[in-house]
């Protein structure tokens, strides 16, 4: 298995024709007539070297990225269409897997999402089957800013917030394909130690009909070092950091999906599940 491949990563750019004094945003619903859907652009950067994480020697402790085994026996893709089954079977097994891998004492899950790639992706055809499902995210990003996480703590922990968060904790993402080996739009992870936090990260509001979330989109930097997990199995979960109570977001991992191109072969359209959680030590 090769130590690296070459791929395309999509990065954010500001459009100089827009008012650069206005905060970047993107609307996740149809914009009113005459109102821009967003005030920045995402452009592909070709020829990015993406390293084999399995042979890299990189560790979660030093770089915020890790892999853990999970018992996936009986976890057929169609099982994940049942929300009750996910809550009753998958999430408890994930809890055991991640706590064992990270040496954590407990985990509190606050969000999870299925993604099922439409055959036409990245172009969405109106009315096509699978049109309502979440699609792979192609632009390099971090799911939360520090301010966004702080604003959510009362929602997640209420009056117990201060007591619960007096412990060492991390906010993490956990990703796995529903079938493997995954060769269709696998995940790419940016080594956070190669990110210039002041220059490379752009704060963006993702605006939905009833809420706005603040995230980081990522600008291209030639110093960036990317990883992926070749042929990730459905019995493996990728764990990547979003926040650390002691280190802040210094190890928060930008990530996105990317196209393997001809190396994907005849891979079936990707189905995956991602989970977001607090880990306590």
From TrEMBL:
GO terms for molecular function: oxidoreductase activity. InterPro entries: AsaB-like. Coiled coil: none annotated. Belongs to the asaB hydroxylase/desaturase family. This is Methyltransferase. It comes from Chaetomium fimeti.
